[in-house]
Amino acid sequence: MVARIACLALCLGGLVGCYNLPQPECGFACGPAGECPSSYSCNSSVNRCELSGTTPSCTPALVDAGINPDFSPPRVISQVPLPDTSGVSSDIIVMARFDEPVVGVSPSTFRLERDGIQVSGTVGYTPTIDNASFTPDSPLVSGTFYTATLTTGIEDLAGNSLEKDVQWSFTTGGDVTPPMVVMRSPAVDMTGVDVGASVVVDFDEHVFGVSSSSFTLSAGATPIAGSVSYSTAQRRATFAPTTQLTANTTYTARLTFEIEDTSFNTLSPVAWAFTTGADLQAPIVVTRDPAAGTTGNAVNTQLTATFDETVIGVSDTSFTLTPQGGAPVAATVSYTAGTRTARLIPDLQLAPNTQYAAALSAVIADGSGNMLAPFAWTFTTGADSFGPRVALTTPTNLATAVPTTSPIAVRFDEPVQNVSTSSFTVNGGAIPGTIALSAGNTIATFTPDAPLPASATISVNLTIAITDVAANALGAPFPSAFPFSFMTAP
């Protein structure tokens, strides 16, 4: 400022006219659109007006004595919203208009804060109307006090900054109305409700906090397992029971105060009852393994089928597995009510590269007598890469009081080969005997040449020399010896 005044005094004193040949400390700023006086042109690289044909050597270039200098800071002439306004919309765009063009409007010089915490948003400036704007990234919180700040980092085109930070405050409108349930299904005290129904509610506004703890279903004091979801677009919460509801039973649905609107107004707890009707829905299969149409399945595959409700009648005649062009395979079939899952475990490994058909018959039904529609699917095995496994031993491992004349037998889950007194040893080969294969080479029996020692521990060991017909070693793909032992009787 002192240098600027000195130059101005020099020029006014007539020692050297700044409009004449270039002198140090001379020059003046171009207008907002590059305007300069007559005979002058704007040097945009330094934003200074220069006498045509000359180049001022001033550094820094200052206001020419022949032009009225600008020493006035910019001023804010209007604000949106007005200072101390209340009831402001949550989607407001905060704005400030200046009395002249300015530069330096940025997120660091135009801020909006709530409780001292800066609100995230986008800052803009419109030069045609000298207007700065702050657009919040998300709606402001209802009923909340906000402060907007413009800092001295904002300057006019002559380099004059705001005289001081400009601040003003406002308060958003307060939403004090709690959310309400405007639709519920099943309706209050409705009877004859389908046992496969889900419980659905719609709210009058967007809410959050919908979860398995805030939206529950029970039959008396017994909670019902289920999944809870919420659709923002529909403002709809859904409780989907994990299994079908019980027929002719009264249920109670509950929504708790954990559910709130965006202004943190809590829902008044809601509860209502409804009663199911007779169960007319047949059970259905919801998952199956292996999946239908899959190929390359392991030859030691076990089959599972899961139902949408508890069923009865699952057995080795109602759940079968048949190779293409063959007879049903021998298998063990079980049912776990807790998971509603039927399991089929083939007694022997499946044939490689073969298509199999799994079938569930209409003998299977739910507790109301609704029968399963016959259900079938196919899958194909891959190459045999699994070695044989021991399915059963006689005597069993760690058995006691075994007769000394007892033969020793091992059942495999597929036909085997290379079973001999060197791959099937008793007490490390100390007890001699003979080996015989039976049942399609799936059972190997060791018959001692003499009765076993009394009150003795007998150890049996099977080695990986034993393979299946595809040459997979015992226990492959994790081949290992298979030992077991038992105690003979006195």
Describe this structure in words.
The protein has five domains: 2-51, no CATH class; 76-172, Immunoglobulin-like, CATH 2.60.40.1220; 181-275, Immunoglobulin-like (Sandwich); 285-380, Immunoglobulin-like, CATH 2.60.40.1220; 390-488, Sandwich (Immunoglobulin-like). The protein is mainly β and 490 residues long. The strands form 13 sheets. It has a five-stranded mixed beta sheet with strand order 5-14-12-8-9, with no helix packed on it. The chain contains one helix and 43 strands. A hairpin with a 4-residue loop joins strand 39 and strand 40.
Indicate the structural class.
mainly beta
Number of helices: 1
- Whole-angstrom Rg: 44 Å
Distance between the termini: 118 Å
CATH class of the largest domain: Mainly Beta
CATH fold name of the largest domain? Immunoglobulin-like
Task: Throw out a few tags for this protein.
single chain, 490 residues, mainly beta, Immunoglobulin-like, 5 domains, four-stranded antiparallel sheet, disordered N terminus
Summarize the SSE layout with pairings.
Elements lengths: L1 H11 L15 E2 L10 E4 L4 E4 L24 E5 L4 E4 L5 E5 L3 E2 L6 E5 L2 E2 L2 E6 L4 E6 L8 E6 L4 E2 L9 E7 L8 E5 L13 E5 L3 E2 L6 E5 L2 E2 L2 E6 L4 E6 L8 E6 L4 E2 L8 E6 L9 E5 L13 E5 L3 E2 L6 E5 L7 E6 L4 E6 L8 E6 L4 E2 L8 E6 L9 E5 L4 E4 L5 E5 L3 E2 L6 E3 L6 E6 L4 E6 L8 E6 L4 E2 L13 E7 L2
Quick synopsis:
The protein is built from one helix and 43 strands.
